[in-house]
Amino acid sequence: MAGWANRGTGTASKASSCERDTGPCREETGRAHLRKFARASSRVLLSLGVALLVTQAVNAARGGHINVASVSGSINPASADYLIESIATSERDGAAALLIELDTPGGLVASTRDILQAMLNADVPIIVYVTPRGAWAISAGTFITVAANVAAMSPGTSIGAAHPVSASGGTERQPTDKEEEGANPAGSVDVGMEKAENALAAMMESIAQERNRNVEWVVKAVRESVAVSETKALELGVIDLIADNRAELLKNIDGRVVRINGEERTLAVAGLPAKNLEMTLAQVIFNFLADPNVAILLFMAGGLGLYAEFNSPGLIVPGVLGVACMVLAGIAFQILPFDWVGLILILAGLGLFVAEMFFQTFGVLFALGGVCMLLGGTMIFDQPDFSDLTVSFWGVLVPAVAAMAVFGGLIVFAVGRTMMAGQIMGVDELVGLIGKTVSKLEPEGKVFVRGEYWNAAVTEEEEEIEEGAAVEVASIEGLHMTVRRAKTS
Question: CA-CA distance, 252 to 362, in Å (whole number)?
Fold first, then answer.
């Protein structure tokens, strides 16, 4: 008891001392508060660290991120390679899902088929999101959207119109008795187009059944080319949801169960970071060249450059640009299926343009050349297996042919002016003039005499004359000069 009393007395003594010496007591109390604050802060930081580790572990367990591939434009071999590679990349790096943001007017049937095969056999959930507002998933885009594990659209978007558009390449069969009675007013059926339509309808039906979508409507999109808005598509069961943005989309589909190669898998994508998958440089270039409008413009620009170089040898720049454009056009023709008849017509048009320089038909050959190029341009990419990618007649083809005609006309005008100048001056006045070769004469080439370019050949006593040499006009016949090396004093 005495011990307990002493302890109590000691405590009281300390309390009494604390009351007497208030300064040290306050200092000790402050240190105690600091220790408590430090311990509390440590607990909070530790809790946050544990929560972060748990979150990272959960994200790692469910994929950790989603991959995003964006396609804006036509479906062609380049964009198909990009999407197929994106699927393979998502499978390799364990992405929780692949999100394809889509805005396309359609494309090649063969490229679409390659994409669909990769999507249907993918080991990663694929989400197709038609975005941004104003985007569409037309034709090939409809197939890709329907084939997704989750199909979504932004407000203000559309889908459908998946009928093949090519009207050439097939043969016509005679109408059946029923068709002759009025069921087929056209009187014949394009067998190639009918086969393409049936094949695409069957493929669309199979995909819709696999993804549990509205089979009747998607088949109608192929056969009747119907199209609907995003709200109607949701109502018809063509898509799964409408989302204003990517974050809303991922939040709304989180927890959704999808089937991947026959196995059910629950999506865990809300809040995951997105990794953008970009096209390679080669894919970007090929994707640009895979536009028929670009291909035809490159081809015509190449022809124009070579035409200018042929007419005025030694300019170099038109020739180099012409060759470069022709090479790029050749690459485009390797990517895109084309009709040889259309290509031959375009070449014939270029040939007629060149012929106008020599025969002076006052524009007749030019007109025929323009017609050939217009016909060739409309036919060159019109193939049975070619869907939705065509050359814009009024937007590209007509202006391109008109520009070539104007350019060629200026050249012909200059040639005619030279001819008239020669007639006014008289042959005798031209003979003896000193000019300069603008290309090597071996024995023929181009010379520049009195402000005009002329086709010229060396005299019999000369074998060749180098470029840039001074020459004297020996004789002239029509638009063709004969020259000799000028005598130096």
Answer: 70
Tokens for 222? 């192929």
The three-class DSSP label of residue 375 is helix
**Domain extents in the chain:** 63-171+190-280, 291-418, 426-485
Domains 63-171+190-280 and 426-485 share a fold: no
Instruction: Say how far apart CA 302 and CA 290 lie, in whole Å.
Output: 17
Residue 308 to residue 318: CA distance in whole angstroms? 6
Distances (CA, A) of 462 to 3, 176, 474, 477, 482: 138, 75, 12, 19, 11
Query: Can you say whether the dihedral through the CA atoms of 81, 158, 381, 172 is positive or negative?
Result: positive
Taking the complete model, does pTM exceed 0.85, yes or no? no
Between 79-83, 171-175, 426-430, the lowest mean confidence (pLDDT) is in: 171-175
Q: CA 302: distance to chain centroid?
A: 21
Reference 90, options 100, 104, 101; nearest CA is 100
Residue 387 has pLDDT above 80, yes or no: no
As a whole number of angstroms, the distance between CA 337 and CA 326 comes to: 17
Query: What CATH number matches the domain at 63-171+190-280, 3.40.50.300, 1.10.10.10, 1.20.1250.20, 3.90.226.10?
Result: 3.90.226.10
Contact between residue 109 and residue 138 where contact means Cβ atoms under 8 Å apart: no
Contacts of 209 (CB under 8 A, 6+ apart): 215
| Complete DSSP assignment for 225-250 | --EEEHHHHHHHTSSSEE-SSHHHHH
The CATH classification number of 426-485 equals: 2.40.50.140
pLDDT class for 168, splitting at 50, 70, 90?
very low
